Amino acid sequence: MYETDNMDKFAEFRTHVPVLSHTAYLDTSSTGLVPDFVHDGVARYQEDRYLKGGDSVWRLPGGEETGTIGMMDWAKTQIAQMIGAKKENIVFGNNSSHIYTLFTSGMYFEPGDNVVLVENSWIANRFAWQVRQDDGLEVRYAKAKNGAILPEDLFDLCDERTRAICISLVESFTGFRMDAAAIGTYCREKGIWFAVDGVQALGVMPVDVKAMKIDFLIGNDYKWMMNYCGTGYGYISPKLLKSLKQFGAGWMSDDERFNTSKQELSLRDDAGRFELGFPTVSGIYGLGLSSAKYLELSADDIAEYVLGLGDYLKERIDTAKGVRLAYDFSRENRSGIHVLCIDEENGVTGEKLLAAGIGAGVKPGSTQGTQEMRVALHYYNNKEDINRLIDVIGK
């Protein structure tokens, strides 16, 4: 286990996130913080567009400059390296919900086929499948037990008509991290597509699409990836890419994107065929910068640091009166998200948290007389953030 306060590179990184100079921010699972290098890079682009006009020149880490298409290619390379993929299998879109519909709308099935989801998982993913029920698709739901979903809970719902298993790698409302490798192996053996929502994992928890045998993966920009809102990204495996229905096309879908005299469409042979028009390039640039920083700091070091902060949070909770973990998962099933139960008599309010410089919210708990708080620990957090929180919410 790493000693979290000895990880100098994370202490140095923290200096690039201005909000942390005055706030113990613990709400990244809702909206993450933006570091200075993302802000400055995006601001430079906007200033050039405003003052100079035309397309902007993008400055990459190390000082190299490139145009927009070159920048997008660079950003895809960073994201691909982050998840163990090739850049040709990365696609950008408006948000993660938009990217998810590439799979839910493009997957081939026959009436009577089914997909297996997790009950009470993120609503956008459930909604995206539910609209396909009118086409004869059956949607099945695995139920969590004490916040945990085991691979067998999903497998028990599968049969010869199952076309996909769809999970969140980290459950948004509990922080439970699933055994994606076991699920992916099962899906590969059974000929079932494996789709993963990585929004609450990507940027802090390791993801390897090959080792986990993932066919489809989505991520977003504004949580753990420390970017502004408005850009989603995804991974489509080579096999799935050949199978997905192309339900729309635009000039970015063509293999000659700037040949505007063409009369007939020739689809690109990579995942970019689903990028219909000019994207939110500032968001893509920010994602590239955050992914590059993730690679620089090391996936394993980041995960160990974040899990180490979780260990420390648990230690502090054990000594605080009227505070306990709602779910106490084993370390391999933990993530950066932790749900706390707080006795109402502790007197924790949103106003009290705000006055103390704590960036977190509190809501009524599922048990009478309690409140609930979701604490998100990013690698820009430290032990002092946790100490400040416990000093406020503990009796």
From TrEMBL:
The keyword Transferase applies. Gene3D superfamilies: Aspartate Aminotransferase, domain 1, Type I PLP-dependent aspartate aminotransferase-like (Major domain). GO terms for molecular function: transaminase activity. Coiled coil: none annotated. Residues 25-389 form the Aminotransferase class V domain. Keywords: Aminotransferase, Transferase. It comes from the Bacteria. Pfam families: Aminotran_5. The keyword Transferase applies. PANTHER family: BLR3095 PROTEIN (PTHR43586:SF15), CYSTEINE DESULFURASE (PTHR43586). This is Aminotransferase class V-fold PLP-dependent enzyme.
